[in-house]
């Protein structure tokens, strides 16, 4: 195959493109439509824009909250490109091709590809544009949003139609292979995390001595426990309280405020300070974080995140938000492992209503747990679990690194082909 002749695209982040490819502004590539459904919404599937593309809410692929009224929603046609053009600095998904005829929030923009475009190629092209926030540089406001006129005035590169189809079909095959490997590794990580939780649960409910005399705990999901252990309510082991309530007007910068720990500050059962928020509110001593506190997510839009927790292993000048709680006791690491067993999986389902996912202080304090009051035994269990969990975490970390490598490879693959740096054989 002879070397392709290239030319300057005039687009900084793309550079050179094949000589026969065109550069066209979006207004020449798309028909804009916003057809409001009105009273006819029952004829259509309800769709949502997610991190994995456009999914159905009502008819099968994804469960979701259905708005009280859908009359203001807009019609989406199969192969439309759906855009979210606001807040380009966040990690949300900003474009996706619709595989369905349906309806979607009026907050999004719907674009029909003109005849010189192959929709699936355009979908891959915009994956490259948005995944690295390429369009952020064109935004003119602090929210990093684009108006529709600004978007339509931006240039994109357009290969000949047969090339678009070849590129899209090739990427479909290759990305499908990558997605298959990714799904396998994600399942392995899920299995390892469940195994880790089962190891913790076994240790904190049965102990480490397989020959110890046992007794019935009286709790169905726990069964038999060591004879010298007892059942205690959490409130009889330590103190807990909910966090700080603040308003948007209280938010400030690091130099003028106090760090507020939130759900996003708990990553893989450890404290993470990569997503920080500061407030200028007065913080009393009861709301100040102390070393060995256990920080717990008590309210979240996702049920699965209720109860996730991290132990504070060092002194830190911080408080915690209203959707969080802290637990303070004399055996923090032992209790940390108890709270990372299957205990929340068992109890949390009984604490929720259909409208709010919340672990109240009263429900938390009244949870019954298996407890060894022997401090030496507690220390032995902690030592054992530190070692076992470290081994499992090391394997999980390696798997997550594989996921990052695959994601980078997929991103690079798409970029190389939709910008003409590589040619489909």
TrEMBL record:
Keyword Nuclease: yes
Record keywords: DNA-binding, Endonuclease, Hydrolase, Nuclease, Restriction system
Entry EC no(s): 3.1.21.-
GO molecular function, one term: endonuclease activity
The protein's enzyme class: hydrolase
Pfam families attached to this UniProt entry: Methylase_S
Ranges where the Type I restriction modification DNA specificity domain occurs: 78-190, 226-404
Alphabetized SUPFAM superfamilies for the sequence: DNA methylase specificity domain
Membrane spanning stretches: none
UniProt family annotation: Belongs to the type-I restriction system S methylase family.
Protein name, UniProt field: Restriction endonuclease subunit S
Organism: Massilicoli timonensis
């Amino acid at each position: 195959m002879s070397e392709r002749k290239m030319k300057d695209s005039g687009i900084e982040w793309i550079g050179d493109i094949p000589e026969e490819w065109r550069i066209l502004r979006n207004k020449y590539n798309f028909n804009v439509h916003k057809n409001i459904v009105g009273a006819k919404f029952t004829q259509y599937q309800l769709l949502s824009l997610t991190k994995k593309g456009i999914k159905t809410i009502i008819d099968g692929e994804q469960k979701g909250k259905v708005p009280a009224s859908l009359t203001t929603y807009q019609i989406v046609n199969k192969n439309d490109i759906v855009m979210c053009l606001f807040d380009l600095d966040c990690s949300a998904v900003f474009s996706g091709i619709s595989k369905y005829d349906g309806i979607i929030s009026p907050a999004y923009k719907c674009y029909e590809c003109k005849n010189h475009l192959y929709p699936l190629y355009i979908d891959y092209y915009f994956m490259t544009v948005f995944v690295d926030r390429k369009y952020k540089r064109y935004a003119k406001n602090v929210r990093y949003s684009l108006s529709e006129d600004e978007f339509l005035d931006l240039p994109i590169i357009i290969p000949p139609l047969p090339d678009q189809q070849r590129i899209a079909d090739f990427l479909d095959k290759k990305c499908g292979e990558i997605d298959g490997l990714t799904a396998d590794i994600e399942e392995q990580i899920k299995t390892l995390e469940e195994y880790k939780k089962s190891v913790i649960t076994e240790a904190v409910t049965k102990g480490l001595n397989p020959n110890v005399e046992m007794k019935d705990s009286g709790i169905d999901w726990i069964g038999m426990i060591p004879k010298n252990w007892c059942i205690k309510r959490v409130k009889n082991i330590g103190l807990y309280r909910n966090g700080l309530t603040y308003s948007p007007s209280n938010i400030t910068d690091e130099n003028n405020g106090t760090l507020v720990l939130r759900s996003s500050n708990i990553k893989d059962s450890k404290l993470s300070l990569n997503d920080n928020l500061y407030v200028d509110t007065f913080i009393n001593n009861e709301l100040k974080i102390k070393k060995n506190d256990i920080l717990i997510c008590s309210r979240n839009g996702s049920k699965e995140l209720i109860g996730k927790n991290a132990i504070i292993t060092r002194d830190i000048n911080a408080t915690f938000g209203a959707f969080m709680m802290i637990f303070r006791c004399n055996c923090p690491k032992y209790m940390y492992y108890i709270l990372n067993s299957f205990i929340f999986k068992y109890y949390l389902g009984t604490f929720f209503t259909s409208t709010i996912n919340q672990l109240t202080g009263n429900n938390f304090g009244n949870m019954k747990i298996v407890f060894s009051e022997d401090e030496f035994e507690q220390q032995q269990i902690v030592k054992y679990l530190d070692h076992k969990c470290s081994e499992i975490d090391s394997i999980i970390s390696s798997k997550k690194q594989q996921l990052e490598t695959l994601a980078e490879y997929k991103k690079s693959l798409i970029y190389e082909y939709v910008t003409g740096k590589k040619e489909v054989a």
